[in-house]
Write a structure and sequence with these properties.
The protein has 193 residues and is an alpha/beta fold. It has 2 domains: 115 residues, 3-Layer(aba) Sandwich (Rossmann fold); 39 residues, Arc Repressor Mutant, subunit A (Orthogonal Bundle). It contains 7 helices and 5 strands. Strands 2-1-3-4-5 form a 5-stranded mixed sheet, with helices on both faces. A hairpin with a 5-residue loop joins β4 and β5. α3 crosses α4, α5 packs across α7 and α6 packs across α7. The longest helix has 34 residues.
Length: 193
Amino acid sequence: MSRTFAYVRVSTTEQNSENQIKEIEDAGFKVEPHRIISETISGSMPTARRKGFIRLLDKIESKDILVVTKLDRLGRDAIDVSATVAKLEKAGIKVHCLALGGVDLTSSSGKMTMGVINAVAEFERNLLIERTQSGLTRAKSQGKTLGRPKVFLESQRQEVINQLEEGKTVAAIARNFNTSRQTIMRIRNIINN
């Protein structure tokens, strides 16, 4: 027999989740109070890092039903929502979203809706890649050095190599140059390859 859970989220402590709970009840879903997971956390936080949502995942099982009022309860953006619904569907959990007419996102019509959401998520990913590439191209054209800044001048790097060849320890060289052991080990690894 399936159980019904509700996940309600508000962003600030000044808000409360009572309206979401009432909306779920008004839609005809009977959710026992101990199966209502309510949390106060920013919508910008991915669901995988929300303590309340993680607690929900520990309780909910295959054939159970999860009800949310809006898609943004399931993730911070289309990409996160899509991944969350896919994870729940894989676990055999039906996901109803009231803002989409209460449709089960794991049903045929829900999958069509998720197809549109996935297309939006792909579009968001592609836009992000384009903006990143454009920014990198612009930075390069302005003569900016990309990547991790160099810790040492070439003369200092050569001195590190000399000290390594003399047999000084990585820790001693790092102290001498006031840097981390990792930085010295990176130089050592380059000359050893």
